[in-house]
Prior knowledge:
By secondary structure, the protein is an all-alpha fold. The chain has five helices and no strands.
Amino acid sequence: AAPPLASPANAAVITIWNQIAVNTAFNNTTPGAASPTHFIYFAFTHLAMHNAINGITGKYELYQWDQDAPMNASPEAAAAAAAHRILTTYFPGQTTALNTKLMDSLASIPDGTREANGVAFGVLAANHLIGLRVGDGRGATVAIPPALAPGDWEPTPPGFAPFTGTAWLGGVRPLAVGTYDTFGPVAPPAIN
Protein backbone atom coordinates (compact mmCIF):
# COMPACT_ATOMS: atom_id res chain seq x y z
CA ALA A 1 0.00 0.00 0.00
CA ALA A 2 1.20 3.50 -0.77
CA PRO A 3 2.17 5.64 2.20
CA PRO A 4 -0.03 8.61 3.08
CA LEU A 5 0.82 11.69 1.08
CA ALA A 6 3.65 13.83 2.43
CA SER A 7 3.88 17.58 1.96
CA PRO A 8 4.05 18.58 -1.71
CA ALA A 9 7.50 18.75 -3.27
CA ASN A 10 8.93 21.74 -5.10
CA ALA A 11 9.06 20.60 -8.73
CA ALA A 12 11.89 23.02 -9.60
CA VAL A 13 14.41 20.40 -8.45
CA ILE A 14 13.49 18.28 -11.48
CA THR A 15 14.09 21.11 -13.94
CA ILE A 16 17.35 22.06 -12.25
CA TRP A 17 18.73 18.51 -12.29
CA ASN A 18 17.53 17.95 -15.84
CA GLN A 19 19.67 20.91 -16.92
CA ILE A 20 22.58 19.61 -14.85
CA ALA A 21 22.23 16.22 -16.57
CA VAL A 22 22.25 17.87 -20.00
CA ASN A 23 25.31 19.95 -19.13
CA THR A 24 27.07 16.93 -17.66
CA ALA A 25 26.46 14.71 -20.68
CA PHE A 26 27.47 17.36 -23.19
CA ASN A 27 30.56 18.38 -21.19
CA ASN A 28 31.66 14.77 -21.43
CA THR A 29 31.97 14.97 -25.23
CA THR A 30 33.21 17.33 -27.87
CA PRO A 31 31.32 20.63 -27.41
CA GLY A 32 28.10 20.50 -29.39
CA ALA A 33 28.46 16.79 -30.18
CA ALA A 34 25.30 14.82 -29.64
CA SER A 35 25.06 11.12 -29.02
CA PRO A 36 22.06 8.82 -28.68
CA THR A 37 23.70 7.46 -25.53
CA HIS A 38 23.00 10.75 -23.75
CA PHE A 39 19.32 9.97 -23.76
CA ILE A 40 19.89 6.75 -21.84
CA TYR A 41 21.56 8.67 -19.03
CA PHE A 42 18.84 11.33 -19.06
CA ALA A 43 16.28 8.53 -18.66
CA PHE A 44 18.28 6.96 -15.82
CA THR A 45 18.42 10.34 -14.07
CA HIS A 46 14.70 10.98 -14.39
CA LEU A 47 13.65 7.47 -13.38
CA ALA A 48 15.84 7.68 -10.27
CA MET A 49 14.32 11.06 -9.36
CA HIS A 50 10.82 9.69 -10.07
CA ASN A 51 11.35 6.77 -7.69
CA ALA A 52 13.00 8.97 -5.06
CA ILE A 53 10.16 11.48 -4.98
CA ASN A 54 7.27 9.04 -5.34
CA GLY A 55 8.67 6.67 -2.75
CA ILE A 56 8.21 9.58 -0.35
CA THR A 57 4.98 11.16 -1.62
CA GLY A 58 3.22 7.98 -2.75
CA LYS A 59 1.63 9.95 -5.59
CA TYR A 60 2.62 7.72 -8.53
CA GLU A 61 3.61 4.09 -9.05
CA LEU A 62 7.33 3.42 -8.68
CA TYR A 63 9.40 2.09 -11.57
CA GLN A 64 10.37 -1.55 -10.85
CA TRP A 65 10.67 -0.87 -7.13
CA ASP A 66 8.50 -1.18 -4.06
CA GLN A 67 10.47 0.77 -1.47
CA ASP A 68 8.76 3.43 0.64
CA ALA A 69 10.72 6.17 2.38
CA PRO A 70 10.22 7.53 5.85
CA MET A 71 7.51 10.21 5.89
CA ASN A 72 9.99 12.69 7.30
CA ALA A 73 12.16 12.66 4.15
CA SER A 74 12.50 15.68 1.89
CA PRO A 75 11.41 14.90 -1.70
CA GLU A 76 13.64 17.71 -3.00
CA ALA A 77 16.71 16.32 -1.24
CA ALA A 78 15.83 12.82 -2.48
CA ALA A 79 15.52 13.96 -6.10
CA ALA A 80 18.78 15.92 -6.02
CA ALA A 81 20.67 13.06 -4.36
CA ALA A 82 19.25 10.50 -6.81
CA ALA A 83 20.24 12.57 -9.85
CA HIS A 84 23.67 13.27 -8.36
CA ARG A 85 24.29 9.57 -7.74
CA ILE A 86 23.31 8.58 -11.28
CA LEU A 87 25.44 11.28 -12.88
CA THR A 88 28.53 10.65 -10.73
CA THR A 89 28.26 6.93 -11.50
CA TYR A 90 28.16 7.35 -15.27
CA PHE A 91 30.26 10.55 -15.54
CA PRO A 92 32.85 10.08 -12.77
CA GLY A 93 35.18 12.67 -14.29
CA GLN A 94 32.68 15.36 -13.34
CA THR A 95 32.20 14.37 -9.71
CA THR A 96 33.71 17.56 -8.28
CA ALA A 97 31.36 19.81 -10.27
CA LEU A 98 28.39 17.56 -9.48
CA ASN A 99 29.22 17.62 -5.76
CA THR A 100 29.04 21.42 -5.89
CA LYS A 101 25.66 21.26 -7.65
CA LEU A 102 24.34 18.88 -4.99
CA MET A 103 25.47 21.20 -2.21
CA ASP A 104 23.75 24.09 -4.03
CA SER A 105 20.51 22.08 -4.22
CA LEU A 106 20.66 21.08 -0.58
CA ALA A 107 21.40 24.63 0.59
CA SER A 108 17.73 25.57 0.13
CA ILE A 109 16.57 22.67 2.32
CA PRO A 110 16.82 23.12 6.09
CA ASP A 111 19.50 20.88 7.60
CA GLY A 112 18.17 18.08 9.74
CA THR A 113 16.37 14.77 9.63
CA ARG A 114 14.17 15.56 6.59
CA GLU A 115 17.18 16.52 4.49
CA ALA A 116 19.32 13.58 5.67
CA ASN A 117 16.52 11.05 5.13
CA GLY A 118 15.80 12.52 1.70
CA VAL A 119 19.44 12.26 0.64
CA ALA A 120 19.71 8.69 1.91
CA PHE A 121 16.51 7.66 0.12
CA GLY A 122 17.57 9.38 -3.10
CA VAL A 123 20.86 7.48 -3.10
CA LEU A 124 18.95 4.25 -2.42
CA ALA A 125 16.62 4.93 -5.38
CA ALA A 126 19.56 5.65 -7.69
CA ASN A 127 21.51 2.59 -6.54
CA HIS A 128 18.46 0.43 -7.26
CA LEU A 129 18.21 1.78 -10.80
CA ILE A 130 21.95 1.38 -11.36
CA GLY A 131 21.60 -2.26 -10.30
CA LEU A 132 18.69 -2.80 -12.67
CA ARG A 133 20.76 -1.60 -15.61
CA VAL A 134 23.82 -3.81 -15.09
CA GLY A 135 24.33 -5.96 -18.18
CA ASP A 136 21.66 -4.13 -20.18
CA GLY A 137 23.63 -4.20 -23.44
CA ARG A 138 25.23 -0.75 -23.29
CA GLY A 139 28.56 -0.70 -25.09
CA ALA A 140 28.28 -4.27 -26.43
CA THR A 141 30.39 -5.13 -29.44
CA VAL A 142 28.30 -5.36 -32.59
CA ALA A 143 29.80 -6.98 -35.68
CA ILE A 144 28.61 -5.33 -38.87
CA PRO A 145 28.10 -8.06 -41.48
CA PRO A 146 29.56 -7.55 -44.94
CA ALA A 147 27.36 -5.85 -47.50
CA LEU A 148 25.96 -8.61 -49.70
CA ALA A 149 22.68 -7.17 -50.95
CA PRO A 150 21.09 -3.83 -51.76
CA GLY A 151 20.26 -1.96 -48.55
CA ASP A 152 23.11 -3.51 -46.50
CA TRP A 153 25.39 -0.97 -44.84
CA GLU A 154 28.84 -0.47 -46.29
CA PRO A 155 31.54 2.18 -45.85
CA THR A 156 30.90 5.31 -47.89
CA PRO A 157 33.06 7.96 -49.57
CA PRO A 158 35.14 9.92 -49.08
CA GLY A 159 36.94 8.02 -46.32
CA PHE A 160 35.32 4.56 -46.59
CA ALA A 161 35.74 4.36 -42.82
CA PRO A 162 34.45 1.33 -40.92
CA PHE A 163 31.38 1.74 -38.74
CA THR A 164 32.31 3.04 -35.29
CA GLY A 165 28.93 4.30 -34.10
CA THR A 166 26.51 3.19 -31.47
CA ALA A 167 25.04 0.10 -33.15
CA TRP A 168 24.89 -1.49 -29.70
CA LEU A 169 22.08 0.94 -28.83
CA GLY A 170 19.62 -1.25 -30.75
CA GLY A 171 20.35 -4.16 -28.41
CA VAL A 172 19.97 -2.33 -25.11
CA ARG A 173 17.30 -3.82 -22.86
CA PRO A 174 14.22 -1.54 -23.03
CA LEU A 175 13.87 1.08 -20.35
CA ALA A 176 10.45 1.95 -18.91
CA VAL A 177 8.64 -0.01 -21.66
CA GLY A 178 8.11 -3.74 -21.88
CA THR A 179 9.27 -4.19 -25.46
CA TYR A 180 10.36 -2.15 -28.45
CA ASP A 181 7.82 -3.99 -30.63
CA THR A 182 5.07 -1.63 -29.51
CA PHE A 183 6.88 1.30 -31.11
CA GLY A 184 8.50 -0.40 -34.09
CA PRO A 185 8.14 1.10 -37.56
CA VAL A 186 6.52 -0.73 -40.43
CA ALA A 187 8.79 -2.74 -42.69
CA PRO A 188 10.76 -0.65 -45.20
CA PRO A 189 9.79 -0.77 -48.85
CA ALA A 190 11.49 -3.44 -50.95
CA ILE A 191 14.74 -2.41 -52.61
CA ASN A 192 14.73 -3.50 -56.21
